[in-house]
Design a protein that fits this description.
Helices cover 49% and strands 11% of the residues. With 70 residues, it is mainly alpha-helical. The chain has a two-stranded antiparallel ribbon with strand order 1-2. Helix 2 packs across helix 3. The longest helix is centred in the middle third of the chain and has 13 residues. The radius of gyration is 12 Å and the shape is globular.
C-alpha cells in the first residue's frame, strides 16, 4: 500500500504524516519502511538543498522510483 502511495507522489514533497494517516501506521514506521524500500532500490530520495542547513533539514525530501518501478 505504501509503495502505491509513493508511486502517486513521485517528484513531490513527501509528507510522512500524510502517508502514515493513509496507511494507518505511525510516522516512525513510515520512515523505517521507506528506508527499507530505498535499501531494496525501489525508490531513492532527493533531499532539499538550502544555504541555511537548519531549514534544509526541516524540509521533506522528494522520492523517485528506481528503474523498472514506474
Amino acid at each position: 500500500m505504501l509503495a502505491e502511495l509513493l508511486r502517486t507522489q513521485v517528484g513531490q514533497l513527501t509528507s510522512y504524516s500524510y502517508l502514515a494517516k493513509n496507511v494507518r501506521v505511525s510516522v516512525d514506521t513510515i520512515r523505517r519502511w521507506i528506508a527499507t524500500l530505498e535499501s531494496l532500490y525501489f525508490c531513492f530520495a532527493v533531499k532539499p538543498w538550502h544555504r541555511n542547513v537548519a531549514r534544509a533539514l526541516r524540509k521533506e525530501p522528494k522520492y523517485y522510483l528506481g528503474t523498472g518501478h514506474r
